[in-house]
Specification:
mainly alpha, Arc Repressor Mutant, subunit A, two-stranded antiparallel sheet, about 10% strand, globular
């Protein structure tokens, strides 16, 4: 169970289209790096990094290093109620064309190809 202050912090963190799109990707796939997220949603690397920092500061997202990759994911220690809230919000917006397109592209995302292009 979360207190009111924490819930407000979470809702503020996801009250942006870019951050909601990132959350929808991270709910659907365990780990993504910044270049994968950038390729999927088309925002600049600095914007993605800023969004990820806000999501991290709210306790929703964390990262781990794996060789040259920094992988971002939903915090595995999220409160079950918070996980349910995020999944419910994503289920409400899943038919939005941007979310649908992001998730369709996610199926074929290949970090090696993406990062080698840059």
């Amino acid at each position: 169970m979360q207190d009111l202050k924490t819930v407000i912090k979470i809702l503020k963190a996801i009250s942006d289209e870019g951050r909601l799109r990132i959350i929808s990707l991270l709910i659907s796939k365990k780990d993504l790096c910044v270049c994968e997220i950038r390729d999927l949603i088309g925002l600049s690397q600095s914007t993605i990094s800023s969004h990820l920092k806000k999501l991290e500061n709210s306790g929703l997202v964390n990262f781990n290093k794996d060789g040259k990759w920094i992988n971002y994911n939903l915090d595995p220690n999220l409160d079950p109620g918070t996980k349910k809230l995020l999944k419910n919000i994503i289920s409400i917006i899943k038919d939005d064309p941007r979310i649908r397109d992001d998730l369709a592209r996610l199926v074929n995302v290949n970090r090696e190809d993406i990062c080698n292009r840059q």
